[in-house]
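User: Before I run my own analysis I want an independent prediction to cross-check against. Here's the chain; please return only the structure tokens and, at the end, one sentence I can use as a sanity check.
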Amino acid sequence: MSNKPKISVIVPIYKVEKFLRRCLRSIQNQSFTDFEVLMIDDDSPDSSAAIAKEFAKTDKRFKYFHKENGGLSDARNYGIDRVKGEYISFIDSDDHVHKDFLKIMYEACEKNHADMAYCKFMYSYFNTGLKLPRPSSAKTGVMARDDALIALIHDSMFQSYAWNKLYNAKLFTDHQIRYPYMYFEDIATSVRLLHKSNKLAVTAKHLYYYEKRFGSIVGTMNAEKITDYWRSILSQRNYFQYIGEYEKFKPAILRFAKKAHGINIYSLIRQHVLNLDFRKMKYNLDVNRDIYEYIISEDYQAVPDIPEIPFTFVQPGRHKKEKKDKKFPL
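Assistant: Structure tokens:
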């Protein structure tokens, strides 16, 4: 590895001792070898740090960093500030990758002079070893920036996940793009990165293996996460409106907002059913409608940074816990 590797791989680490060794080995065994790995220990309380240090000790390409706990976005940003590579890849520490992941993604960018590359991914199930492809109509080739952006906003052919992509490091450094401290931070960020790109190189090969496990952000939706889901969508509209290009992407954003409206109705009802608490369900559904209307409103005024949602959900079941705590203090 040279002092300036071709690719910097950022691996945020927190409570992943079960999966981490598999993740790091899949990176270590890449057919493309000119890379560095920044293992960002977000103050993980389990044995993840010991596993990461093993790799740092035996392979000079692996670099271990410890920081105070700040969450996924903070760990990614910490890594971005320390990369030396020409390109950046994010691999979540419970996931793993095909042995040619870096090779194919790097060649896609280099041969097509593209600032970003995308690959398809598979759902991985650790306990069974099963892998199932995530359906996508994406085809190998090159997409013009605006066409790729519309597809990304639609959230069908492409998704905004940070991890199944390769980025020219200049997208982050030249434009000071970082991940906001919120859930669904990649939805708020990926459109900015792609907008600053010249084009998108696409490979239809399934090179990334995303671990499906209980406790994921989407699988444990609550009032805070639903708010951030809306906030991430609002941030897309806000960004394009602020730079004067909203009309170009308006149909895609409205379509995504309508889709999110339906998803959040399901998530809210599910939360009330799971908590056997229906007293604020109508209120929450009304708030969900108000947020949707706020996002698609012609009167919305853009702001310079990530916008806030001016409406608040009530998490069902919380007031019950508060009463119990008052009655039975620890």
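Sanity check: Strands lie at 7-13, 35-41, 62-66, 87-90, 96-97, 116-125, 130-133, 141-144, 165-168, 199-211.
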